[in-house]
Amino acid sequence: MRLTTAAVASLGALIACQTKEFQPLELASSPVTEDSGAPSAPLLGPRPELRDPLRFYRRASLDITGHLPTTSVLDAIAADPTTLDSHLADLLAHPGLEERLVHLLDEQWHLRYESTPVGPSDYGFDDDLRYTLARNTAEEPLRLMARVVAEDQSWDTIVQTDTTMATPLLTRIWPMEPVDVPEGQWAPTRWTDYRPPVGVLTSNGLWWRYNTTAFNYNRTRGNAVARLLLCTDYLAIEIEFESPSLTDAEGTEEAIRTNPSCVACHASLDPMSSLFFGFWAYDLFDPLEISRYHPEREPLGSELLGIEPEWFGIPINSLADLATVMPQDGRFPMCAVETFARGMWRRSTTPEDADVEAALLGEFEASDRRVGALLLALTRTESYVGDLAMAPPADSRPRLVGPQQLSALLQQTLGFDWTYIGEDQLDNDVTGLRVALGGVDGEEVTSPKVTPDANLTLAWRAVAEAAARHGLDQLTEGSCALLPGATDATTPEDDDFDPALRHAWLWLTATEATAADLDALEEVWLQAASADRREGWAAVLAALLQDPLVVTY
């Protein structure tokens, strides 16, 4: 059995990196000073010149808050483009930031999935709580990370805090302190079952998604920690096997201990995996068993794996020690940079991004690892500006508005929420359109859609037409924020017709409507309103919501 050359090189580099970066816990690291001779990090340059500052601000607003910018802000930037960075900084205080980060992080953490190990009936609830229960349990760790960012805390906090986030529903089924907020809202709380204070690393939501089997011994969880928080994925390392006996647990464990191909990874994976036996369940479908932490099972890690706990060569005592050693690992802050770069760039990172990522890391560290500063720094990169630069890269292209952004857009402009039997149709896969609209489900679809297809087109059409029907009710009442001054009786001959369309166009696209744009919308209205003028407005709203400048950003 042989490791490939690439695998040997990869593992060698990993081990060398760990050896240089880490010291035993009892030794303090020496700070790097300007006189130490260490090379300084590359500096992040200025933002590429923009060909369309308003569309760029719309992009940043959708990426950071999930919401469209208001027309008043767009007008302010148009009047004085030098205020752009000030308005970008204001996005970090937007009430939509926290919700957007839940979805941005989930594109890589894959927690908001439809299949849960237990359902409402296991807790004595009605089955109509399926969607709510699935979302609440899955989002717990995501909400914690999003709150850390929204409160401008150091990213280290996600593995050092003794708190988590919960809804009243979660506090009824999990061992948590009660929260005094309305059902469906989130608030900080603490666990009451003596689990270690290491933030997301003791999250039920995380370990329900990345569970383990009787003979996997938490290795799935160890790799999840390495992949999500260090951007080191053991499963991505290529190895070659000569068909060892892996047909039973005994043969597998023997190979892990003695086969060089197996030992190369398990030498660091297994000592880390041994830390998570407080979450090891004998019955993976027992709600009480998987909901609680089991301190008495912590020693099982060393017993069953035959190895003492370590963090990549550093001996540690327990899971609680990760609050200290993980933030000291140089891969932890760099992985945060890569995670948010992938989210903001809407693509995977590549080796060609190394210099830019190093510069971003420098700014991240200088801000005491605050993600808000990192998000703003990312908006200055060429990969983020992309097709909106005066001289765009050859491979740049517009992004597709995702389901969470679309949901916020419709709520913001039309007050429209599409629900069916209590389930958000833009945010689930059992009855809804989340994947069809370009989202991820955490199981079969693990990255957002980047190019349109027939499914996306049909899904957008269905959503646009449903939202347009809702907008008609607002027009009847003369209260449609998207079309101010217009009612369902307004016609192209009325003075309010063109101003309403101009306002809608600016708000939805961050561009000024041209005469051709207005003429095209008027033609849509005339053709659809031949029998009923209300149908004219329904057609105009549906057409607006499906315009390429609306569905992309």
Helices, strands, pairings?
Blueprint: H1 5-21, H2 53-65, H3 71-79, H4 84-90, H5 97-109, H6 130-150, E1 164-166, H7 168-173, E2 187-189, H8 204-209, H9 219-230, H10 249-258, H11 260-273, H12 287-291, H13 300-305, E3 310-311, E4 314-315, H14 322-328, H15 331-345, H16 354-366, H17 371-378, H18 382-385, H19 403-414, E5 419-420, E6 423-424, H20 454-477, H21 497-509, H22 515-528, H23 533-545, H24 548-551
Helix pairs in contact: 5-6, 9-11, 10-11, 15-16, 15-17, 16-17, 20-23, 22-23
Q: Can you tell me about this structure?
A:
The chain is an all-alpha fold and 553 residues long. It folds into 5 domains: 53-97, no CATH class; 107-200, no CATH class; 210-327, no CATH class; 330-397, no CATH class; 403-551, no CATH class. The protein is 48% helix and 3% strand. It has helices at 5-21, 53-65, 71-79, 84-90, 97-109, 130-150, 168-173, 204-209, 219-230, 249-258, 260-273, 287-291, 300-305, 322-328, 331-345, 354-366, 371-378, 382-385, 403-414, 454-477, 497-509, 515-528, 533-545, 548-551, and strands spanning 164-166, 187-189, 310-311, 314-315, 419-420, 423-424. It has a two-stranded antiparallel sheet. A two-stranded antiparallel sheet has the order 3-4. Helix 10 (249-258) crosses helix 11 (260-273) and helix 15 crosses helix 17. Residues 1-36 have low confidence and may be disordered.
